[in-house]
Write a structure and sequence with these properties.
With 466 residues, the protein is of the alpha+beta class. The chain has three domains: 5-171, no CATH class; 199-303; 305-466, 2-Layer Sandwich (Heat Shock Protein 90). The chain has a five-stranded mixed sheet with strand order 2-1-5-4-3. It is built from ten helices and twelve strands. The relative contact order is 0.07. Helices cover 57% and strands 17% of the residues.
């Protein structure tokens, strides 16, 4: 029980209420002592009035009056004359004098604590104002023994009452905490366990329903987290299914491309100038397609092979991409601009860099053609701080907000209708494999610019990492 939230809350409530009662106890016991002493003064005054009414009283009556007043003697000052009205033998000398005419609160509290602490019976003198202005001053002497006993009895009564109040209050708070806090927290924990058992089932997602602000905020945060996780799991499942389908397609496509590769050998032997010019492009394209299919079959995962870093001529890669895209443009009014210094060498995997640039240029082409207006795609390269920066810019309409939000997420970052959004995701993975980065440098109504950063301080490799 003490390890539970409600159990600890119960104990803390009892402790705090008891502390509050103790803080109340100290001034209460001081007040009780003051009232006790004032009551003795009042009784003594009444006893003295009997003597004032009768000039002479016998000793037995005087003793009875003092006993009823619970004092040893009574001194009453009237008309500036101090008179010893009643007197009896005192067991011990007077230990201290207490003036109750204008006492300070701190003084009353200190005297009360000292009285409880001192267990030795003392004889004390108490001075006060007579009731109903029956004189100028009245003082009595009395024993502290009965005073201390009365204070202890009063204090025990307060402590017993405090304990009852503490327990009653704690029980009420315990029930309230159970219903208002513990039960919703347990229900939230049960919902989390149920969701953990089947995270793919959207019916197990927590629905915010608590009327308590803090708990509702927790439920809303958990709902958002579970929604994202469920979506990610579904996407992962789709990717796994897609991977299996791609592996099967790649197997058959590789066989088809291998046959096409055999025909290109005969095409290369043609004497036609146009065929001679286009044949190497066709051979390279088919070779890349065959390698891509083999890589897909080899890894069978959503992971790309480690890049084979070597020094390559960037101009050749860019020209190859542009030539292929020009064939796709046909008669459409779309121009290409290349701003790459002649002989620029870059350390990268030639095939993977071709795929990255090709994906970005293809996206730019499709964006411009989708507008139905003329446009331009510009490719530039500069060296900055030992890194090669490649930028692909277009004069298209820019990316919509949704595409920017999930730019490199598979199946979410697609811009055109029917697009999967895989192109940018693949490009990002390939560039990361080089230790570089790819990002959106600009996108507005004037066009879009992507920037590729390739580090050049990497050792040259001659074999693909396994």
């Amino acid at each position: 029980m003490f390890n539970t939230l409600s159990g600890r809350f119960l104990i803390l409530t009892i402790i705090f209420v008891m502390i509050a009662e103790v803080l109340i106890f100290v001034p209460s016991i001081a007040r009780f002592r003051e009232d006790y002493l004032l009551a003795r003064l009042e009784r003594a005054q009444i006893a003295s009035l009997v003597l004032l009414a009768e000039d002479m009283i016998d000793e037995s009556l005087e003793a009875e009056l003092l006993k009823n007043a619970d004092v040893f003697n009574v001194v009453l000052r009237r008309d500036e004359v101090r008179q010893l009205i009643l007197a009896a033998d005192m067991p011990t000398p007077i230990y201290d004098t207490y003036d109750l005419r204008e006492p300070a609160a701190t003084e009353l509290i200190g005297d009360a604590i000292m009285r409880l602490w001192d267990t030795t019976p003392r004889t004390i003198r108490v001075i006060g104002d007579p009731v109903k202005e029956a004189g100028l001053l009245i003082e009595v002497t009395l024993s502290t023994e009965k005073l201390r006993e009365a204070m202890i009895g009063y204090g025990l009564n307060i402590l017993r009452l405090s304990a009852i109040i503490s327990i009653f209050t704690a029980v009420l708070l315990f029930i309230a905490v159970q219903r208002l806090f513990v039960r919703p927290v347990r229900q939230l924990g049960a919902n989390m366990q149920r969701y953990a058992a089947a995270p793919e089932d959207a019916r197990n997602i927590v629905l915010p329903a608590s009327s308590i602000t803090e708990l509702r905020e927790s439920e809303e945060a958990l709902n958002s987290l579970q929604t994202q996780l469920t979506g990610a799991l579904k996407q992962k499942d789709r990717l796994a299914q897609l991977g299996q389908a791609v592996s099967k397609i790649s197997h058959d496509l590789r066989n088809i491309l291998t046959s096409a590769q055999l025909f290109t050998d005969r095409i290369e032997a043609s004497e036609d100038p146009g065929v001679k010019r286009m044949a190497p492009k066709l051979v390279n394209s088919i070779t890349r397609a065959v390698n891509l299919c083999e890589g897909t079959l080899k890894f069978g995962k959503a992971e790309e092979a480690a890049p084979n870093i070597e020094e390559i001529l960037l101009n050749a890669i860019i020209e190859d991409v542009v030539e292929s895209e020009r064939l796709s443009v046909g008669e459409y009014d779309l121009s290409f601009a290349e701003d790459i210094p002649t002989g620029t060498i870059v350390k990268a995997d030639a095939e993977q860099l071709y795929r990255v640039v090709s994906n970005l240029v293809r996206n730019a082409r499709q964006a411009i053609i989708g507008t139905g207006k003329p446009g331009e795609i510009a490719i530039s390269a500069t060296s900055e701080n030992g890194d090669m920066i490649i930028e692909i810019s277009d004069t298209g309409p820019g990316l919509p907000p949704k595409a920017r939000e999930h730019l490199f997420a598979p199946f979410q970052g697609g811009v055109r209708k029917g697009g999967t959004g895989l192109g940018l995701a693949i490009a990002q993975e390939l560039i990361r494999g080089h230790g570089g980065s790819i990002g959106l440098a600009k996108s507005d109504e004037t066009g879009t610019t992507f920037s590729i950063c390739l580090p050049q301080d990497v050792p040259q490799q001659h074999e693909t990492a396994s």
